[in-house]
Amino acid sequence: MRIILHADMDAFYASVEQRDRPELRGRPVIVGGISDRGVVSAASYEARRFGVHSAMPTAQARKLCPDAAFLRGDMQRYSAESRRIFAVFERFSPRVEGISLDEAFLDISGTERLFGPPVEVARQLRAAVRETTGLAVSVGIAPVKLVAKIASDVAKPDGLLEVPSERVGEFLRPLPVGRLWGVGPVARGRLEVLGVHTIGDLASSDPRRLEAEFGPWGLSVARLARGEDLREVESWREPVSYSEENTFGSDVSDAQTLASTLVVHAEAVARRLRRDGLRARSVVLKLKLGRRERPGPRGFPLLTRRLTLGEPTDDGAVLSQTACTLLARVALSEPVRLVGIGAAGLVSASTGQLDLFEAEPARQRARQLNRALDEIRDRFGDTAIARGGRPEAERSGLSLQRKRGEKPVEPQASIPRTQR
Fold first, then answer.
1. Cα dist. 359→146, 173, 282, 308, 362 in Å?
2. Same domain for 118 and 253?
3. Is there a catalytic annotation at residue 162?
4. pLDDT digits (tens, 9 = 90+) for 15-56
5. Distance from first CA to last CA of the chain, Å, rounded?
6. What tens digit of pLDDT does each residue of 389-398 get?
7. Residue 250 is inside which H or E element, if any?
8. Which CATH number goes with the domain that contains 182?
9. 134 plus 215 within the same structural domain
10. Same domain, yes or no: 192 and 323
11. Same domain, 187 and 41
12. Is the same domain home to 128 and 185?
């Protein structure tokens, strides 16, 4: 029988700030975008008592908790802490699937002889994370990924919950149907119209009715409601695409500002491609318009455009020029809330067809320039130099996403005693 553990750090960004800044301990702390268009990335449990939560607009968080400490955050520091945390996870299992900077699945099947029963493994892991970082992690244990993730959420803050296989149905049955993966606000509303309010309601629903209303998705989510989750813990998956995007502090109409932001993001994507030895065959432009069409985070019109290149590339100049070409073709007539660039159709840089003749001088110069830029950034940081002096684009919040190809930030060896 499989034994899956889901480990999720408690209010990760906010907890790091409280650990490192004693004056913030016991105070509401909110990390993320601090402008009116900003988004909360993490809220301490002191702030959550006022109703503040991640993904909430900062303006709303200020109304709910005006006395909180609002911080922009430090992604390099958080990424370094994440590396320390995952190093601890890997002590307990070789099969670790990172979901974000602060959470992961571990398949601990067969580790009983090394660490003892599952609950003991979880206790040791939680103690090791606290000893290494001074931070709390909540853990859920179950035979399937879905239940382990829900269990860790129920166990928060700083808790541990095991759901044995014989209790999976009992555990899931009374929970709101929105707890299931893939059941967002829209799907939840449609299910509630059918009288489906809990996971138990969904598990016992007529499959024919679900298929008629929702198609194959209805049958799939009903299987999850019955605790049938066959997904394995995948320690490595081949990347499909690399991307960078930015939600502006206020809607942008100026084409030059959009183009400048695309250049910054294209360079970041290109660095990640080069660090991972990959090149992209296609460039994707993503635009979210400022006009709201319906409530919720997906209530803004989204435009995407794609262009296939003549040959794969890892050059930021090529990516940005292609993205700007796509932007010009859109012929925007209204402000933009979000802009992003993606690199898709990834191939290994080492498996491309060799040139019969020496690469043309312009291509040689581009490669030499990129190598020089990478060396400078690796030594002095990603913001040490920018193409054309373009500044880093302002972001409305921070992400918990684990990005492939980012330069690892070396974590500190230990935590000062006063911060433990």
1. 51, 63, 21, 21, 8
2. no
3. no
4. 999 999 999 999 999 998 887 778 899 999 999 999 999 888
5. 37
6. 444 445 555 5
7. strand 241-252
8. 1.10.150.20
9. no
10. no
11. no
12. no
Number of structural domains (the chain) is 3
What is the amino acid identity at position 36? Answer: D
Residues 152 and 262 reside in one and the same domain: no
pLDDT < 50 stretches in the chain: 356-358, 389-393, 411, 413-420
The 10 Å CB-count burial string (b at 16+, else e) for 209-241 is ebeeebeeebeebbebbbbebeeebebeeeeee
Catalytic residue among 103, 162, 244, 267: 103
Report the C-alpha gap between 103 and 106 in whole angstroms.
Answer: 10
- For residue 157, the model assigns a pLDDT of 93
Q: Give residue 187's domain range.
A: 173-225
Say what the pLDDT of residue 408 is: 52
pLDDT tens-place string over residues 345-364: 999 887 655 554 445 666 66
Tokens 């299992």 belong to residue: 93
- On average, the pLDDT of the chain sits at 86
Closest residue by Cα to residue 243 from 369, 135, 82, 403: 403
